[in-house]
Amino acid sequence: PVLPSPPVAQPKPLTNPLTANWSGQDIHPDRLISGPLTRSVIHVGLLANDGVDYEIINPDPSRLLLSTTTPSFLAFPLLVNALGSGLTLWQAPEKFNGHLALPFRVQSITFHTTHIPPGLRLRAYLRITAASPRSRTASISITDGQGKTLIHAAGWETLRCEVSPKVHRFVLRSSENYFTQELPPDLFGDTPVPISASIATGYPPSLFTDNQGLWLRVLAFILLSPPEREEWLGMRAVQPRRIEWLLGRAAAKEATRRLLLHHYHQHYNAPDIPIWASDTGKPAPYGPWQTTIPAKIDLSIAHTPGLILAAAVPNARIGIDVENAARDLTETFSRNAFIPEEHELAAASGDGPGAIMRFWCAKEAFSKALGTGIRYAAADLRIRQYDPHTGRIMIEAVSQWAQSLSELNNKQFPIQTALYQSHIFASCILPLPDE
Predict the structure, then answer these.
(1) DSSP H helical segments within 68-156, as ranges?
(2) pLDDT for residue 110
(3) Going by C-beta distance under 8 Å and a sequence separation of 6 or more, which residues neighbour residue 246?
(4) What's the pLDDT at 140?
(5) pTM, entire model
């Protein structure tokens, strides 16, 4: 059918507009999430409380699909996406401000042309028509730059979503930022090898559960390699366990990223560092960096409600553990996990319950460094020394532990413990076993 001539564009003038003059990285990735092949918005001119004027270039579709170089669309999705990008830009006068626009619904989209040539520079005019604490609605027109309206959207509505500026920055620039925080190095005491550690904490649970788990999936797609993503998507565990698993991977990947960057001056993104179980079942990092880094990197992950940590070391083995300092160990548990001499050592320190919790974390960290977990009796991992001033513990393995692992015979090993954010933290670094 022959369409009538496109109507003349008559955008409503903006009220007290400011000149934005954004282009390049001011738009991508500092305000919009788009890969190099899908970037349609190229300039933002004017910005006001009632709208925004911006420019779009119609992308070349020939490189978008692997199956064909000549895709045919009833409505080119990248151009439609560019329409709605205006609302995200309008909400982002400052970069990484935590204000995001989630597409919700649109009343109508009218096309006044059947063909827009690839590479054509277009002008877009967005005007706010309704606003509430929950949503924003706008009308948007795309013109050919010569005063003719090619596409018009009425009632384009987005839902407001608030995240922390840190999350916003990570989502938009994940290769340059971290989702986790770096653990203070003094928690580990004097270490024989370099160490990097990360902690995932401080995020409200609603971040992972609101909007039908949208941000949880966003994080999974940013952090995980495609095979890891498939594993996570296929997990049948309850949602809290899936969240814990993902945050553990975030901490482990970012501990490894930090180690590679700080000590080997090599930059890798989180998906470049898949985490898989080793032969012993211990999580281990893999990836292309293994061909360029002359080191074997070992990992340990620990978690307790509200706190998830990971640490990475080169050419050594590491184990970490964390427990809430207020956790009350039952009498039966303590009797099975500790011998009388350990209870006496804890009492002599002046902080019996606190010392006992440090002893337990030390046993867990030691077993994790070995890669075994508490395989045999916990009471046969004996705490021989404890300095309450430094938090340093010496541990010795006896009975089945020493019988099955010859490297443990008649030796004591150091464990560092500390109080961190009302939690007991323990770390153990062991040399690599003899080949």
Answers:
(1) 77-90
(2) 92
(3) 216, 219, 220, 223, 224, 232
(4) 96
(5) 0.88
